[in-house]
């Protein structure tokens, strides 16, 4: 069997599927959807996978519904469902995903004894208006977002294409592969909202190896891969509402309770949280919305805030300090305070044995020319919940960075990546699958 596996021509497969990878990427890029509203995205993924004999688990079958975090309100979900119907999603599939139950898990069992390999690919976009600059590659090539105010500005369109490429590799070599495969097409990664629910469904109980990764992050050259990622920051996402009392700003201002000023005070003082000597800490106030007119004492104010820490302990420190300041700002202006935790990511340490293993697996590759031992992410990822669940059950985990030049950074209106990274990502996963089947690890 090892001889048969060794004769799998990964290079030939990659050459054949590369045009399709680019087509998938551009299709998903042109129709981005934010977390828990990925109806069209999920449907299009499903239509590809159903032809490959994977068993598909959609929506509530894919994760624990009650453990979802930061689900939009009903009006937003209904609007997204109507848009999906207009975009061609069949009503029976809308019903399966209704209420924000997007994303899916695809499983395949060879029926032969072997490893259980799991891979995660995130599918959501960001609430960003995409650039219309003539030099912006998606604009020049006619695959800019058609959804106003929404954009794939983090590479998840490329991750979806990579996942579908991996699924095709598994299907095309199903006669010789052994063990089981679980592919997570995860909704709502942005804001740390989707993975926790997936981690609670039992998919990871017997997983032996878990892989995920990200395009870009650090602007590495094409052909460079980081074998394992270090320093995922734990993070908590918070929505804050201050409720005061409106009044005429000229006639009787003393009757008002100013929620706008509470927002402003919280914003300034949150930035002043004393940093911790134990490691990296972060806080960001990403959005503020308050007031209704220049002559009205503002009765309502909202903030969107996130904390980060190098460890869960450090993030908890930042979160507790943030809560103290948020509540104190409300008391200062005598307004009511309401806080919602709408997202969370935990810390993680990848298993270091993947470093040498990745270098060995890639030594015969013509396109993966440089394997770094590690790369500091510097951000947060809720895939860490899936990774920790695997480690808890004795499996091994890693998170790759796939190098590509970046004209603009992640979460920028003109974000884009070099599409040559797509076949490289699929190739790495394919070579890993072959090697793991050969029992080399």
Q: Tell me about the biggest sheet?
A: 8 strands, mixed
The radius of gyration computed from the alpha-carbon positions, rounded to a whole number of angstroms, is 23 Å
**Could you report the average pLDDT, rounded to the nearest whole number?**
94
Number of separate helices? 13
Oligomeric category: single chain
Distance between the termini: 16 Å
Total beta strands:
14
Given the C-alpha coordinates, what overall shape results?
globular
Our estimate of the beta-strand percent is 15-25%
Helical residue percent band: 25-40%
Strand-and-helix sequence, N→C?
A: HHHEHHEEHHEHEEEEHEEHEHEEHEH
Instruction: Pick out the low-confidence regions.
Output: none
Strand order of the largest sheet: 1-2-4-3-5-14-6-12
Sheet/helix structural class: alpha/beta
Tell me what the structure shows.
It is a single chain. By secondary structure, this protein is α/β, with parallel strands linked by helices. Helices cover 34% and strands 20% of the residues. Strands 1-2-4-3-5-14-6-12 form an eight-stranded mixed β-sheet. The two termini are 16 Å apart. The model has no long low-confidence stretch (mean pLDDT 94).
């Amino acid at each position: 069997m090892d001889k048969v596996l060794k004769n799998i021509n990964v290079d030939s497969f990659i050459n054949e599927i590369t045009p399709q990878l680019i087509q998938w990427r551009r299709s998903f890029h042109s129709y981005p959807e934010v977390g828990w509203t990925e109806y069209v995205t999920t449907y299009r993924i499903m239509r590809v996978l159903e032809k490959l004999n994977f068993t598909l688990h959609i929506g509530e079958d894919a994760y624990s519904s009650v453990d979802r975090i930061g689900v939009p309100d009903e009006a937003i979900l209904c609007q997204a469902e109507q848009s999906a119907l207009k975009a061609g999603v069949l009503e029976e599939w809308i019903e399966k995903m209704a209420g924000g139950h997007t994303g899916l898990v695809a499983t395949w069992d060879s029926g032969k004894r072997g490893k259980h390999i799991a891979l995660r690919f995130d599918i959501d976009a960001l609430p960003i208006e995409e650039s219309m600059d003539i030099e912006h590659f998606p604009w020049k090539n006619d695959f800019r977002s058609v959804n106003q105010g929404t954009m794939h500005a983090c590479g998840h369109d490329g991750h979806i294409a990579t996942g579908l490429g991996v699924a095709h590799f598994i299907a095309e070599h199903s006669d010789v592969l052994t063990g089981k495969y679980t592919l997570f097409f995860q909704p709502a990664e942005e804001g740390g909202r989707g993975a926790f629910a997936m981690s609670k469904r039992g998919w990871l109980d017997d997983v032996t190896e878990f892989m995920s990764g990200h395009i870009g992050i650090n602007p590495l050259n094409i052909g460079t891969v980081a074998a394992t990622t270090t320093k995922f920051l734990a993070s908590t996402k918070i929505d804050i509402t201050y409720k005061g009392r409106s009044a005429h700003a000229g006639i009787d201002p003393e009757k008002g309770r100013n929620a706008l000023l509470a927002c402003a005070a919280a914003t300034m003082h949150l930035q002043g949280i004393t940093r911790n000597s134990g490691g990296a800490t972060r806080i960001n106030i990403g959005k503020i919305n308050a007031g209704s007119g220049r002559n009205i004492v503002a009765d309502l104010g909202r903030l969107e805030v996130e904390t980060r820490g190098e460890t869960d302990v450090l993030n908890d420190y930042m979160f507790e300090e943030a809560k103290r300041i948020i509540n104190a700002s409300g008391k200062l202006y005598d307004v009511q305070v309401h806080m919602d935790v709408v997202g969370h990511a935990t810390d993680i340490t990848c298993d270091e044995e993947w470093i040498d293993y990745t270098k060995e697996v890639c030594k015969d590759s013509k396109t993966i020319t440089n394997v770094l031992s590690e790369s500091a992410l510097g951000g947060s990822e809720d895939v860490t919940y899936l990774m920790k669940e695997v480690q808890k059950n004795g499996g091994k985990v890693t998170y790759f960075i796939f190098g590509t030049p970046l004209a603009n950074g992640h979460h920028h209106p003109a974000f884009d990546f070099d599409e040559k990274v797509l076949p490289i990502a699929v190739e790495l996963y394919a070579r890993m699958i072959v090697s793991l089947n050969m029992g080399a690890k």
